[in-house]
Design a protein that fits this description.
This protein is mainly α. It has a single domain, classed as MFS general substrate transporter like domains (Growth Hormone, Chain: A, Up-down Bundle). It has 18 helices and 2 strands. The chain has helices at 9-37, 60-85, 94-110, 121-152, 156-178, 180-191, 195-214, 216-220, 223-226, 236-244, 247-278, 283-315, 318-333, 341-346, 349-386, 391-416, 427-447, 452-465; strands at 53-54, 58-59. Strands 1-2 form a two-stranded antiparallel sheet. Strand 1 (53-54) and strand 2 (58-59) form a beta hairpin. Helix 1 runs antiparallel to helix 7 (195-214), helix 5 runs antiparallel to helix 12 and helix 6 crosses helix 7. 57% of the residues are buried.
Length: 466
């Protein structure tokens, strides 16, 4: 099969901006959903679902979040299988991006628009329904999107560069999603809207913006021109089983699960860390500084991105990922002491917030780039060995474990709120840092078993034979 041309820089940008769109949607859910439905007492938001607990530490939002991710357990491999098998004249991946973008943005916004203004069963039914549809169409977009990394990147270097680009736009999506409280405050003061209505309108605006970015890859990338891919004929169960028989992949997804569980905890908890732990008497300042903190995190990450790219080419990806995970775990431990009198005597609450986010942004810069490139290496190696190209299934299996990790993180955080989520009663919020530490360290230890050098050497040998 003739070598396809490399993707030009302008199209790499179009591809990466698609990630900015879906990252905005995913991080709206990750950052804002728990806060919107389980607000602390000083948030000014009404309760829209029951705050009752089940089995001591479970609540409605944790159970709803879990149901959405379990739904993903079905849709991720199914969409990947359909994408790998697709014989669409426009390609195996791009048509899925086209049809998944608008519904994903729409149902994301609708998750924050329950029909009743009081806690009712109808609100729970609405949230579960909208969440189910949101995750379905987000999967329709995201799973084929990630599979394109291995197909658009024809070498390990090209795959690393694409991973760097989409890491930048994923981080930008965090910034965009984090601006929800600031936009809501501006809408509330400018149009005299209630707090909940301004929050909902802010999310609707950001979802519309996300949709426009998600349209860019299907509008501008000609998949047939740049991807050399043959539709897979492997049945879905066999295809999924094949990915999980790959030993390197198993180490990868176990570490990935633990990392995304930890990341979900800190992203879900950030509004609580600022409004409850650091600024219990000035929640509005806590909300406003959250958006600034995430912007700082992205800027600091950007500073490290060229270093990450260079170091990965010099010493390999594996040692950098292991080191970043261990360091990330140590940062999590700091959450437990945020706002404590002894620490506040040394550092102001604002300085504590900035120190935490700057320290966190260092490992995040490594972990935002390298895992996608590593998985593309694993998928390419398997394709060369087996002659079957099922990049979609590899990324779906990874996304499945990633989402299960996110579910575990969100459920854990939501469950911990039952142990204290308000000023003066904040034990649950502080314990989230301890859990995050344990998860990140476990991820680092597991990933030590990944055999990067052997895999890349084998890939080089196989490429030389073709």
């Amino acid at each position: 099969m003739a070598q396809k041309p490399s993707l030009p820089g302008r199209l790499q940008l179009a591809y990466a901006l698609g990630q900015l769109g879906w990252s905005t949607l995913a991080n709206i859910i990750g950052i804002q959903l728990v806060y919107f439905y389980i607000p602390p007492e000083n948030a000014g938001l009404p309760y829209l679902v029951t705050q009752a607990t089940f089995l001591v530490v479970l609540n409605a939002i944790s159970l709803i979040a879990a149901s959405g991710r379990l739904w993903d357990a079905i849709t991720d491999p199914l969409i990947a299988w359909l994408s790998d098998r697709s014989k669409h004249p426009k390609g195996r991946r791009i048509p899925f991006l086209k049809y998944g973008s608008l519904p994903a943005a729409l149902f994301c916004a609708l998750m924050f628009l329950p029909p009743d203004s009081q806690p009712t069963v109808l609100n729970i039914v609405w949230l579960v329904s909208m969440q189910t549809l949101f995750y379905l169409f987000l999967t329709v977009y995201v799973t084929p999107f990630f599979a394109l990394i291995a197909e658009l990147g024809h070498t390990a270097t090209e795959r690393l560069n694409l991973s760097t680009w989409i890491s930048i736009t994923y981080a930008l999506g965090i910034i965009v999603a984090a601006q929800t409280p600031a936009i809501a405050s501006a809408l509330q003061s400018g149009f005299a809207l209630p707090a909940a209505a301004s929050f909902q309108l802010a999310i609707a605006i950001l979802c519309a913006l996300a949709f426009l970015f998600m349209l860019l890859p299907p509008l501008f990338i000609d998949e047939k021109k740049y991807c050399a891919a043959v539709p897979s004929e492997v049945p879905i169960v066999a295809a999924l089983a094949k990915t999980f028989r790959n030993q390197n992949f198993i180490y990868y997804v176990i570490a990935d699960f633990a990392y995304f569980a930890a990341l979900s905890i800190i992203m879900t908890g950030l509004l609580y860390y600022t409004t409850v732990l650091l600024f219990p008497n000035d929640a509005e300042h806590g909300k406003q500084i959250t958006g600034v903190l995430l912007a700082v995190m992205v800027v600091v990450s950007f500073v490290f991105y060229p270093i990450v790219n260079l170091l990965a080419k010099k010493i390999g990806k594996k040692p950098l990922v292991v080191g970043a995970l261990i360091f990330y775990g140590l940062v999590f431990l700091c959450v437990y002491i945020l706002g404590k009198p002894l620490l506040t005597a040394l550092f102001s609450p604002d300085l504590q917030a900035y120190l935490l986010i700057i320290l966190a942004s260092i490992p995040i810069s490594f972990l935002g780039i390298l895992p996608n490139a590593i998985l593309a290496d694993i998928a390419e190696n398997d394709a060369l060995k087996s002659g079957i190209r099922q990049e979609g299934m590899y990324f779906a299996a990874r996304t499945l474990m990633q989402k299960l990790g996110q579910t575990f993180g969100i459920m854990t955080f939501a469950g911990l709120t039952t142990l204290g989520k308000d000023p003066g009663n904040d034990l649950g919020i502080r314990l989230s840092g301890v859990v995050g530490f344990l998860l990140a360290v476990v991820a680092g230890i597991v990933f030590i078993k990944y055999r990067e050098k052997e895999l890349l050497a084998e890939t080089a040998r196989l490429e030389g034979k073709n």
